[in-house]
Write a structure and sequence with these properties.
The chain is an alpha+beta fold. It contains eleven helices and eleven strands. A five-stranded antiparallel β-sheet has the order 2-1-5-4-3. A four-stranded antiparallel β-sheet has the order 7-8-6-11, with helices on both faces. This is GGDEF domain-containing protein.
């Protein structure tokens, strides 16, 4: 699958429409504020002279490890975004949509855009970009994490996590090209959603990997059987047909872990065991 920067361009284009009502600031790699617009100064500081001793982590009520993680993500992906609270000059909390991107890579300078939530909610399309996978149209990993955290916090019953991997996607993608590969991923997402409709929610993790949250763990085997059945048939992409091999593994909260990381690791291990079994069966 070809890496696309259209998502970054699209979300930053939407962000630009908010600049007049958003707080904009430049920082160095350590979070020290270098410059800010008038909106930032009006809400957070009284004058530009106050910026000389200010650090963005204090304003955002975050620690240094959090900041280092944000810097790492920006360097890797070009953009970082999240919901976050900041502290205004009256010590009041302000909920914002936080975006950070490279401003000057050679000098390690970063641009921060803080959009008040009431402004952010005026743009439903921007919310869609935050929580929906651009290619397949299913909820993304951020959506998975937030929903799982909410369910683990509220649920008094077990929750199933299903990990789905397309085994031969790279081979198809390399042989037929990125356009066909992307179309195949879209079709696979559609098949998975239809196969388990009413029994869980599907998310795209990354690449050729999908996740599913299943509220009733008794449905896990039925969901797996339904997905297997759908992928036992040829998948049509335009005028071409493909036999798509998949592997699945699952974990159960809280039996296999009480944290997202543990549940995903357990499901991933189970998926790879099935992948190895499938490979042996195909080689026989």
């Amino acid at each position: 699958m070809q890496k696309s920067h259209s998502f970054l361009k699209e979300i930053m284009n939407f962000s630009m429409s908010f600049v007049q009502s958003s707080m904009v600031a430049l920082t160095d790699a350590n979070g020290n504020l270098l410059s800010a617009n008038d909106v930032f100064l009006d809400i957070v500081y009284g004058s530009k002279n106050d910026l000389m001793s200010a650090n963005i982590t204090n304003i955002l009520r975050q620690d240094v490890p959090w900041w280092n993680q944000v810097i790492s993500n920006v360097k890797q992906n070009g953009l970082w975004f999240d919901y976050i609270y900041l502290k205004d000059k009256n010590e009041q909390k302000v909920e914002t949509f936080f975006q950070m991107s490279d401003y000057s890579e050679d000098r390690d300078i970063y641009m921060i855009l803080l959009t008040p939530i009431q402004t952010f909610h005026e743009c439903e399309e921007l919310q869609r970009l935050v929580y929906i996978d651009e290619l397949t149209g299913v909820p993304n990993l951020r959506s998975f994490r937030e929903l799982l955290a909410e369910k683990m916090k509220q649920s008094k019953s077990k929750i199933g996590i299903l990990f789905i991997d397309i085994d031969n996607f790279k081979k198809i993608n390399d042989q037929f090209g990125h356009v066909v590969g992307d179309s195949l991923l879209q079709k696979c997402a559609e098949i998975v959603v239809n196969a388990c409709k009413g029994k869980g929610k599907v998310f795209r993790k990354s690449g050729d990997e999908f996740l599913m949250i299943i509220d009733q763990t008794m449905d896990i085997d039925a969901v797996k059987d339904s997905i297997d059945l759908q992928f036992s048939k040829e998948v049509m992409v335009g005028h071409q047909s493909f036999m798509v091999d998949i592997s699945m593994g699952y974990s159960v909260y809280p039996d296999d872990g009480e944290a997202e990381e543990d549940l995903l690791r357990f499901a991933d291990m189970a998926m790879y065991k099935e992948k190895n079994r499938n490979k042996l069966n195909r080689d026989e």
